[in-house]
Amino acid sequence: MKQLEIKSSIGESKIFVGETLANVTKYLPQNRKIAIITDPVIHSLYGEQFPKADVVIEIPRGEANKSLQSLDVVFEQLIAHEFDRTSFILGIGGGIVCDMSGFIATIFMRGIEFGFVSTTLLSQVDASVGGKNGVNFRGYKNMIGTFNLPKFVICELNILKSLPQSELLSGMGEVVKHGAIANEQLFSYIENHVADLQNYSLEVLETFVYESIVIKSNVVSNDVRESGARRIFNFGHTFGHAIEKITKMPHGYAVSVGMVYAAKLSVLKGKMAQKDCDRLITLLQNLGLPTSCEVGPEELLTVMKCDKKRDGDSVHFVYLTGIGSCCVEKVSYVELAKYIGDLC
Ligand SMILES: NC(=O)c1ccc[n+]([C@@H]2O[C@H](COP(=O)([O-])OP(=O)(O)OC[C@H]3O[C@@H](n4cnc5c(N)ncnc54)[C@H](O)[C@@H]3O)[C@@H](O)[C@H]2O)c1
Ligand SMILES: [Zn+2]
Known about the structure:
Blueprint: E1 2-8, E2 11-17, E3 34-38, H1 40-46, E4 55-58, H2 68-80, E5 88-93, H3 95-107, E6 113-118, H4 121-127, E7 132-137, E8 140-147, E9 152-155, H5 165-182, H6 184-192, H7 194-198, H8 202-222, H9 237-247, H10 251-268, H11 274-287, H12 297-304, E10 310-311, E11 314-322, E12 325-332, H13 333-343
Parallel strand pairs: 2-9, 3-4, 3-5, 5-6, 6-9
Antiparallel strand pairs: 1-2, 7-8, 10-11, 11-12
Helix pairs in contact: 3-4, 4-5, 4-8, 5-6, 5-8, 5-10, 5-11, 9-10, 9-12, 10-11
């Protein structure tokens, strides 16, 4: 097991990579009420291994249920079980469960403590680490939410074995992103271990998760509210979020296409060599992730303009300057319109 820490202006969080669900009890506060929030799949697969709790609350799966409406029954249950300010919430699940349980814990009684057992690759390398939580609102993703760090995050590796390949691959989109923006060694490690991923090798998964969190925790510790350095994690997401919204493809798949478009733009603007762009495309293809999509430039640009990270007429755009390095510069939508036809 490996341990990491986020120490930020809004609090601290301990992250345990390779710890097991069976050991979670030792991280929970004693003599305090515990609520587990989970989804029906995780509950049925791993419910027997859940730690002792006063109540287990299931939230329905899917982005459509990551909503304010779904919170209602959770608060009802917490109140029915006489939860108070000293109570603790444990989210056991993927990104949706973690985002929602963090949000619930932050607003219930003006805030109670919480922790996560993160059960998808995507949530281990991204969603559960970094203090962002919240829900969607009328089609706008993660529009209502807060920044708040869990006391702990447990990244169970064995549990990833029951993840469908498509979910594992979606998480790999974010792992490749981490290598591409900040760590060439991680990038080449992925290049050399594509086959091991298909076999769910625990050693390889541990490296992917650990190295990703090293990158994310270092940056988030200094910029938890994303006013500067944290923006680098948006690489591939300016295009990716729009592609996800239009095509409904899984998040990491859309980010994969978005990274290719962003890398191509980096080449067109003279920031990165063509060979590095080709290297990124080859790795994504070898993993089985998409590198293009059917969305036309006009539709893509229109939806990109609805980005919640938009800053007036422009957006902070993450360019690659090589494999393992990047820079962030503001780009106007007018300028993006000039290039977008050459990217798609
Ligand atoms: N807070 C952040 O910084 C942040 C970052 C990235 C993504 N997100 C959010 O994360 C969400 C996506 O997360 P996700 O991809 O984990 O999706 P998810 O939580 O919907 O999980 C994907 C599916 O896998 C199932 N599942 C979970 N763990 C499993 C396991 N071990 N075995 C078998 N099935 C399992 C779930 O029931 C679900 O159907 C999005 O809502 C996104 O907005 C948040
Ligand atoms: Zn993402």
